[in-house]
Amino acid sequence: MRQVLKGKQNVTAAVVFDLDGTLVDSVGDLAAAANKTLNGVGHDPVPVDVIRGFVGNGLPKLVERLMRHCDLPMDRHTELTQQTLKHYNAAVSATTMPYPGVLEALETLKQMGCVLGICTNKPEAPARHVLEALNLSRFFDVVFGGDTLPIRKPDPGHLLESFKALGTSDTRLYVGDSEVDAETAVNAKIPFLLFTEGYRKTPVANIPHTVAYSASETLPTLVAKLIQN
Question: Which of 40, 131, 153, 197 is the most exposed place for a label (fewest CB within 10 A)?
């Protein structure tokens, strides 16, 4: 049973983060896994910048988009998804790195009294692996992956259950980088902070958000302002 945090003292806000494209740039490892799968079926590799556009709805959707791009038969989707996950789990943090300023921002948020969580469509096991490998897991009290619940983003229940596990707080904020994250926040009626340097495919002006930011070191100041409002 997943532990729910009870009545933390001096909690100023519960802040839940997306992972890929928000805290870490993981597209290199995702692309490497995808291209190993393509190599296994005799297909040429796809450029990283193309695969970047496939990120955002979880690994099965990434593989689906990849297969459509490569004109592969969709009846192999389950097989190729499992193969890609196998390749990815074997090298989940080979090139993945936190975005500049993320470590400092998380440190400051914790010092401010915020409780932090993760709500990502990446499967929970590799999400935890990435957090451990990059020394980020110490900041997060809960981690909800795309397979933690029977639902996933943009279903608001995925995000709301993440907040529920963190416990009560006067302020709830969600931080992400994509259209899926924005839709989830709208559905859950949670203020949304949009990181503009991630994997979005749409102009910032066309993505619903409460605040947008391009440098992670500015995040604690933005959170502090939202707490005060």
Answer: 40
Q: Which pLDDT score is estimated for 17?
A: 98
Query: Around 212, how many Cα atoms within 13 Å sit in the side-chain half-sphere?
Result: 16
Per-residue b/e over 127-146, b at no fewer than 16 CB within 10 Å?
bbbbbeebebeebbbbbbbb
Structure tokens given for 162: 């993440």
The superfamily CATH assigns to domain 14-26+96-228 is: HAD superfamily/HAD-like (3.40.50.1000)
Q: What is the pLDDT of residues 93-108, one digit of tens each?
A: 889 999 999 999 999 9
Torsion angle defined by CA atoms of residues 98, 100, 104 and 107, in that order, rounded to the nearest 10 degrees: -30
The verdict on domain 27-90 having CATH code 1.10.357.10 is: no
Phi then psi for residue 209, to 5 deg, are: -160, 155
pLDDT score, position 153: 96
> pTM of this prediction?
0.87
Query: Quick one: 110 exposed, middle or buried, by C-beta within 10 A (0-12, 13-18, 19+)?
Result: middle
Q: What is the mean pLDDT of residues 120-131?
A: 93
